[in-house]
Amino acid sequence: MSDSKLAGQFFDAAIGLLERVRDEESGSIAAAGAAIADAVAAGGRLFAFGAGHSSLAAQDVVYRAGGLALMNLLAIPGTVGVDVMPATLGSALERVDGLAGAVLDSSPARAGDVLVVISLSGRNALPVEMAQNARALGLKVIGVTSVAYADGTRSRHVSGGFLRDHCDIVLDSKIAIGDAELTLDGIEAPFAPASTVVTSALMQAMTAAAAEQLVERGVEPPLLRSANVDGGHEWNGRVMTEYRDRIFYRQ
Question: Which keywords describe this protein according to UniProt (predicted)?
Fold first, then answer.
């Protein structure tokens, strides 16, 4: 069987996008890393939020080997993934006004913390209000989104604004409207989305920048090790005990 031409094209497209965000978003990535390092060093907490498939990149930095132990998932039931039935309910919840405020009010997030809000389009009420409300509470907000949507679509929020309009720092994933890299004659819909690959890479790059900043300040980054290597379980236990008042996925 010969190699797939389309599979190779997808890898090329994804690599091209990764190279773009590496080169064009380096300043924003460094700024995001500095904001996270500031919060860690000052006793603050870290949160990540995303709805639908944008939640995948948020989950990817929570309680994982090589990740910051202080990163907590700000989860809203029904919006975290496709496990909700029907799956379309998750999309509907992203358009509900007021939901973000209610979630933040009942969360442990407080002034001085950092919240990373991930939304590919950045046009729905939920991510926009999440950023708005978080900033009003005194959190620093990092948005990971595709600026192309703000330039080429209309907001679904009553303000007419997008996620990018309510963040302290914005990381642009460069994903084109529609989130599909490939087309082929005989297939009506475009396919092969790359947003998860690129957004997850941005999240990991941000974490790496934060670790670098902390070391430069003489602070050991509170990183987790793999529990599947010798000593990993003991290491993680020590980190979680030391930072237990800033870790909420254990409770």
Answer: Isomerase
Residues 150-198: tens digit of each pLDDT: 999 988 887 878 999 999 999 999 999 999 999 999 999 999 999 999 9
Tell me the C-alpha distance between 53 and 90, whole Å.
Answer: 10
Domain extent, residue 53, equals: 7-22+44-243
pTM for this model (two decimals): 0.94
Residue 176's pLDDT is: 96
Nearest partner of 166 among 177, 155, 175, judged by Cα? 155
250 lies in a domain? Answer: no
Q: Determine the Cα–Cα distance for residues 217 and 220; give it in Å rounded to an integer.
A: 9
CATH assignment of the domain containing 67? 3.40.50.10490
Residue 2's pLDDT is 67
Domain presence at residue 28: no
Which pLDDT band holds residue 251 (cuts at 50, 70, 90)?
low
Number of domains in the chain: 1
Which range (126-130, 139-143, 171-175, 198-202) has the least confidence?
126-130
Q: Tell me the residue length of the chain.
A: 251
